[in-house]
Amino acid sequence: MKEQLAKIKSEALAAFEAVASPAALDELRVKYLGKKGELTAVLKQMGRLTPEERPAMGALANEVRSALESAIETASQKLEASALEARLKAEAIDVTVPGKTVKMGHKHPMYSALDEIKDIFVGMGFTVLDGPEVELAELNFDRLNAEEGHPSRDWSDTFYFDKDSRVMLRSQTSPMQVRAMDSMPLPIRIIAPGRVYRKDEVDATHSPMFHQVEGMVIDKNVTMADLKGTLNLLAEELFGKGTVTRFRPHHFPFTEPSCEMDVQCHKCGGAGCATCKGEGWIELLGAGMIHPNVLRMAGIDPEEWSGWAFGMGLERTAMRRFKIADLRLIFENDVRFLEQF
Amino acid sequence: MNLSRKWLNEFVEIDANDKEFAEAMTLSGSKVELTHDMGEEISNVVVGRILSMERHENSDHMWVCQLDVGKEEPVQIVTGAWNIHTGDLVPVSLHKSTLPGGKKIEKGKLRGVLSNGMLCSLKELGLDERDFPYGVITAAALLNDYHPIDPDKPSIPEEIELGHKIFGSVVAAGAGEVKSLGDGRWSVALVWAEDGSPVGTTVETACQNIHSMDLVAFDTKARTICTLADLHAEQKEFPHCIPDGIFVLQEDCKPGDDIKAVTGLDDHVVEFEITPNRPDCLSVIGLAREAAATFDKPCRFHTPEVKGGGEGVLPELLDVETPDPELCPRYTARMVRNVKIGPSPKWMRERLRAMGVRPINNIVDITNYVMLEYGQPMHAFDYRYVNGGKIIVRRAAEGEKLTTLDGKEHTLTSNHLVIADEGRAVGLAGIMGGLNSEIVDDTADVVFESACFDGTCIRKGALALGMRTEASAKFEKGLDPMNTLPAVNRACELVELLGAGEVVDGVIDILNYVPQPTVLKLEPDKINALLGTDISQGEMAQIMERINFELHDDQTLTIPSWRGDVKEMADLAEEVARFYGYNNIPTTLMRGQTTLGGYSPEQRLEQRLGAVCRSCGYDEIITYSFISPTWYDKIGWPASDPRRESFKILNPLGEDTSIMRTTTLPSMLDILARNYNYRNKDVRLYELGRIYLPGGENGLANEEKVLTLGAYGEGFGFYDLKGVVEAILREIRVGDVEFVPVSDNPSYHPGRCAQVLACDGLYVGVMGQVHPNVAKSCGVDGELYCAELDFVTMRSIAGPDPEYTPLPRFPSVTRDIAVVCDEAVTVGKLEWTIRRGARGLLKEVSLFDIYRGKGIDEGKKSVAFNLVLRADDRSLTSEEADEDVKSILEALEKDCGARLR
To answer: With an 8 Å Cβ cutoff, is A251 touching chain B?
Structure first.
């Protein structure tokens, strides 16, 4: 009997070791451990043993049983592992096949540039204003100190809706300065982006409709140095730290002193190239200290309050920001263009 | 405004190169647009003297010349020009030289003979006869160049003999010695035969193309050598006898001199952008003042000196009246007698040319010269046409007619100011002279007018006539009335300098205003407070001195008359800043009371709408606010549609951009069509743009924003767009959204269009497939989809920020039902009925199938819904759910005639 047990053990262990499928393993389990299995058959012979022999033989039988059971467990785990391995192998895919497209829409590059500008100023405590594009000449010109006869009032420059040149398409966002002065308590910090219109034929740098953003501050003790500081900050936020600017005297009826701010050409770094027409600088915006007449007309005492204002073209800024070569692309709205941004 | 740097240097010496000059002037406020070296393209072109000329042995028209170009050895150049002679000084473009237009000259062989360069014409140097009037070339008809039009019937025999009679008194003659008389005239020895015996004579001619051995046509009676015109010949009959050729120099120069210096092409021109507040800078003197202040150099201005002495007494010759004094603050005039009209001298022509003005004749050139130098428009007119010797500056009579110098006749109104004599207008004041008093070749007596007219009057007058001239552009900015006298004196001084006439003593000078210089106080503290600087009083005083603002002991400043733009402290601050340097002003950040900025709820809603559109895959577009009125036809709006009433631009760029849109649909269709034409696939677009409706406050527009969606693409349909509209409304938490079929919107497909309603039937917008006819009119043969959603309505119905509702604690029961109903019953109606029929346990209804076909009767459809039922306080039993479903089914049957399938 001892020999029988030893034989079963060694045979069964070898068989379990070599088993190739769960079904075969199950068959073997039945063969050795089942009710009619070989081990059971041997155990049935226990009755023939002497009581002295029984405990030792019983222990031996149990030992064989547990050895077989553990071998089954091992074999089963082994089979499971190899089955999983086979399945995963079969499930392998070509990871270089493109992913399923999730189509996202794109913000227009000019509004992306505008949003950056808005965020910069909102962060400095500015309010964003919106105003009419069909505007009174009174607000677009008179209240901005551009009296009768100023060349920008010509019908060759500005679009009008009536013979008396009373209602027009605003030629600048600057009337928003007046609207703000008329409607807001002092001190004021606003920006006002929007569409403006001038009688320019369409070409690579001109369009009869374009966008500007106006900025204005009125407070006590506001200086031109503040204006410069704020605009330098804007240039750095838009075009990167270390952006070099310069300020040139200029003339606007509604600011005095007036200036234009240039940004050093990004292409040539100031040496002069085709992009900057050899000047080394690219004009970015016009600005200045609010003209005392403009303050007076709004009922603000220029002896007590001072302010600055600026106006900048958005198309040009976006074009510089995204290196867009032709203004017409902005209004053409070709999706191949839009989806680059 | 162009500025000749040579001219500038007459007043202030600036040695900076063009780039430095441009930079410094720009930073002090006179913006330089560009600088131009007039002779930039010309190099290695020198003066040469023709030492000898021989006819080219392999050519019937070329000459081989030896030239002294100031080097040890003469150079040989082959030319086809006939107007040159031995001894002439000519421009020589040497080997490896360049000429205007990027032309490069190198040595080469011409019919086997070496040519070491090229002789140049005026044109090849970038000049023309107006620059050098003596450069005009007259050509004789040389019989040895005769090429008959019809070879079989020549007008002149090929083997012509000397003395052959050509016609009338014109005979063929041979040229012997040809001698220059200077001054562009030549003496030519001629021989011919008369009655078999030789005859000879010497004649003078202006024709430059005659050389010894040439055959000419000589008019024995008139004793002239005939030109082509004299022979009534065509150019092609004498192909080389052309009024063109080499520029023969009459300048004081020698071989080897640089041609640029000789012809005045060594000047540099600077182009300025002058702002409208500084009309004084539209002059050489004005810019010289700025340059002197910028470079801190002294200015040398000169006071014109007129000798006078012309015949007559001015007040007897000329009387001036100004019945409208407010329109003519000052009128200054002088007279010149015995005028000799002719070309002006080279130096004057060169300066005019550098400033972009074409020379005409001495008198006209003088007026232009003074206008450029002083910025004061001048007018010269012929005294003999001033009837009664009286000049009246008056408003034109209504309907009065005047023909201006450009030959155009104008009908005037009382808004125009004219210069008139007793009987008629002779000029449009400040705009253009009259043709009836123009300076002509035999003009003897000239009146120089140097006046100051009212800027607004001139501007309006010029605008009404559509003729903005250089003079009117200056006047309309408001000129310095103090400038008229020096300008007219300068003109007279130039007349004397040029020997162009005799100036009558005295000046007529009518002053209709009292000159009152502006006086301001220099307040350094206020200026520093505005600029944010700390500039000393002393430095400010120095700046004021540089710009000729006279500072008195009491710290008041007298502003010079030409600086009408300086009126108060802020203006002085700008002057200080300009010369202190804008870039030397410190940069500081804003102090003071901070304001609470930020976006308004409306702006945040715009941002949210944009974000949801983009997350649905829609790209943002920007379109023009103005459209063509023809769009209203294209989108099918009937002629009577009140929405056609638009803001109409009276002076549009073109019809395409002439009215303010009252709908955004055309703009979207335009962009969809463009992308379609570009063959872009699967296009999804949105724009949050404005429409402009009449009826706003103060005559302005009601500018309302519209969110417009547009799309097309493979498999794209109504429900794709509807899904986006639903997503948008869900995003802004609008409840109760309904889509109501619309079949009468002419822009949309009658069976695929819906009105979007929300919050109890409030109109939000419209969406659907664009009507195929509308799409076709945009050039699109596929399906286009658009939605127009009203922003104001969306803003008014946008829901509040969400509040948390507890998650369900009890399981839900789902039931699928399929009902059969008539085709006409909409899914919307079924869904609405289901919701209404439920007894409070129904949480969600969703359509999952619509079936037509086998098993379903014709004209019917089977619609299947998935229902989710749940109670918030307990687990539902099957029976409870069935109760609800039963109630739903009853409602469906009752209200929709729908039965469970």
So the answer is: yes
Categorize the per-residue pLDDT at B458 as very low, low, confident or very high, splitting at 50, 70 and 90: very high
User: Which of B614, B616, B617 has its CB closest to that of A107?
Assistant: B614
d(Cα B318, Cα B385) in Å, to the nearest integer?
12
Record: contact B619-A105, CB cut-off 8 A: yes
| A133-172 residues touching B, CB cutoff 8 A | 133-136, 148-151, 154-156, 159-163, 166-167, 169
Min mean pLDDT across A5-9, B402-406, B832-836 is at A5-9
> Is A85's Cβ below 8 Å from some Cβ in B?
no
Contact check, Cβ <8 Å, A104/B680: no
Handedness of CA B193, B194, B199, B205 (dihedral sign): negative
Q: Among B28, B678, B682, whose Cβ lies nearest the Cβ of A249?
A: B28
Residue B131: predicted pLDDT: 82
A287 CB near a chain B CB, below 8 Å? no
Per-residue confidence band for B590, with pLDDT thresholds at 50, 70 and 90: confident
Where do runs of H (alpha helix) occur along B746-844? Answer: 772-777, 791-797, 827-837
Count Cβ neighbours within 10 Å for each residue of A229-254 and write b for 16 or more, e otherwise.
Answer: bbbbbbbebbbeeebbbbbbbbbbbb
CB atoms inside a 10 Å sphere around CB A51 = 6
ipTM of this model?
0.86
Q: Which residues of A are less than 8 Å from B698 in CB distance?
A: 136
Task: Nearest by CB to A339, from B571, B619, B623: name it.
Answer: B619
Pairing of strands A255-264, B401-403: unpaired
Least confident of A143-152, B516-525, B840-849: A143-152
> What is the structure's pLDDT at A150?
79
Neighbours of B559 (CB within 10 A): 22
Cβ distance of A226 and B590 shorter than 8 Å:
yes
In a 13 Å sphere around the CA of A66, the CA atoms on its Cβ side amount to 5
Nearest to B225 by CA among B179, B182, B187, B275: B187
Contacts of B298 (CB under 8 A, 6+ apart): B12, B292
- pLDDT, position B285: 97
- As a whole number, the mean pLDDT across chain B is 92
What is the phi-psi region of residue B117: left when phi exceeds 0, alpha when psi lies from -120 to 50, beta otherwise?
A: left
Put simply, the answer to whether B701 touches A134 (Cβ < 8 Å) is yes
Residue whose structure tokens are 């009024």: B243
Buried b / exposed e over B820-840, threshold 16 CB at 10 Å, is bbeeebeeeebebbbeebbee
- By CA distance, what is A125's nearest residue in B? B597
Q: Among candidates B532, B562, B569, which has minimal Cα distance to B548? A: B562
Closest to B120 in 3D by CA, of B185, B44, B201: B44
Instruction: Using CA coordinates, name the residue in chain A closest to B652.
Output: A159
**Cβ–Cβ below 8 Å for A289 and B530:** yes
* Spatial distance between the Cα atoms of B631 and B661, rounded to a whole number of angstroms: 9
Q: Which one of A100, A228, A231 would you mutate to disrupt binding with B, by most B Cβ within 10 Å of its Cβ?
A: A228
Give the pLDDT mean for B434-447. 90
Which pLDDT band holds residue B478 (cuts at 50, 70, 90)? confident
How confident is the model at residue B326, as a pLDDT?
Answer: 92
Taking an 8 Å cut-off on Cβ atoms, the answer to whether B592 and A134 are in contact is no
B614·A169 Cβ contact <8 A:
no
pLDDT beneath 70: ranges in chain A: none
DSSP B730-743: HHTT--S-EEEE-S
Query: Which residues make Cβ contacts (< 8 Å) with residue B615, sequence separation at least 6?
Result: A104, A105
Mean pLDDT within B128-143: 87
Burial (CB count <10 Å: 0-12, 13-18, 19+), residue B328: buried
How many beta-carbon contacts under 8 Å exist across A and B? 249
Contact B615 A104 (CB under 8 A): yes
